[in-house]
Amino acid sequence: MAEATDQWTIKRLLEWTTDHFNKVGSENARLDAEVLLAEALQCDRIMLYTRFEEVPSGESLTKYRAWVKRRIAGEPVAYIVGHKEFYSLNFVVNANVLIPRPETEHVVVEALEAAKEINDRPLRIIDVGTGSGCVAISLAKHIDQCKIAAIDISSDAIAVAGENIQTLAVADKVKCFTGDLLQALPDGSQPVHLIVSNPPYIGRFETETVEDSVLKYEPEQALFGGEKGTEIIQRLVTESEPMLLPGGRLIFETSPSVFDDCLQIVENSSLELEKSVKDYAGLRRVIVAKKSP
Ligand SMILES: C[S@@+](CC[C@H](N)C(=O)[O-])C[C@H]1O[C@@H](n2cnc3c(N)ncnc32)[C@H](O)[C@@H]1O
């Protein structure tokens, strides 16, 4: 009989996979290994630590091995397991939507901050480029009385947002619209208190700085904002001006590489720059612009 140390225990599997992921240049090798194994075993990641000496069954092991191969080929873990945590909620994701990023949580934080200052209810909000619906749904979960229009140009993305809206039980607050920026809204839509967005903002000029796995697996339409990267943001600002109520805010994410250009776009508009927000890495990431009261 094989010695216990020769067996593929959870501990050994994690060590081997972490080592392998490190060799292929994975940034979060240990975390990736744990997420995949926990998913294969249908348990919480933390529970792996209480089961170190257990030898997973053939079926879980087969699944895990196939997933490890996909990860080694570069596929993001969130697409392999089919979900991703954002603002402490679990979102279904697939290749039709951007994987929610931690830096986008700053858009949620700023919107919740602004929501506290506005007394009018129900609070009316538009999320432009909703993708998985992560921003709209997080806001719906934290604002008692609100009505949110979640817009995306991709009907495949809207299908994912719709699934998350159902699963996370916010269908009474969030409604989806497919179409181009604010033109997706029905004619005669009322102005709103908040417009939030994580629009596509990578410039074609900086394509070579984007990670290979992002380019290969995430939807192109979610990434690129035009040649300069600011083309969609320029349109977003212009279209937001008439759709905001006095004192309302446009809160959007962008990247440090086009941040100054975005500030200029706001300066050239009728909105006032209220705040620039840095992300967890200390990089300028979110702009809050206010319509005069
Ligand atoms: C960067 S992703 C953000 C997704 C999600 N809000 C998040 O933060 O994870 C941008 C989203 O905008 C959508 N999009 C791109 N161009 C658009 C347009 N002109 N009108 C509406 N949505 C657009 C893309 O399909 C994509 O889902």
Textual characterization of the structure:
The protein is of the alpha/beta class and 293 residues long. The chain has 2 domains: 4-73, Helicase, Ruva Protein, domain 3, CATH 1.10.8; 96-290, Rossmann fold, CATH 3.40.50. Helix content is 39%, strand content 21%. The chain is built from 11 helices and 11 strands. It has helices at 10-23, 29-41, 58-72, 77-81, 105-117, 134-142, 155-167, 212-217, 220-223, 231-243, 259-267; strands at 83-86, 89-92, 123-128, 146-152, 174-178, 192-197, 202-203, 224-226, 244-253, 272-278, 284-290. The strands form 3 sheets. Strands 5-4-3-6-9-11-10 form a 7-stranded mixed beta sheet, sandwiched between helices. Helix 6 (134-142) links the parallel strand 3 (123-128) and strand 4. Helix 1 (10-23) crosses helix 2 (29-41), helix 2 runs antiparallel to helix 3 (58-72) and helix 5 packs parallel to helix 6. It is elongated, with a radius of gyration of 21 Å. The protein binds S-adenosylmethionine. S-adenosylmethionine binds next to helix 6, strand 4 and helix 9.
The top level CATH class name of the largest domain: Alpha Beta
Query: What's the mean pLDDT score?
Result: 96
The CATH architecture of the largest domain can be named as: 3-Layer(aba) Sandwich
Q: Give the low-confidence spans.
A: none
**CATH topology heading of the largest domain:** Rossmann fold
Task: Order the strands across the largest sheet as they lie in space.
Answer: 5-4-3-6-9-11-10
Give the helix level as a range of percent. 25-40%
Derived structural class: alpha/beta
What is the approximate shape?
Answer: elongated
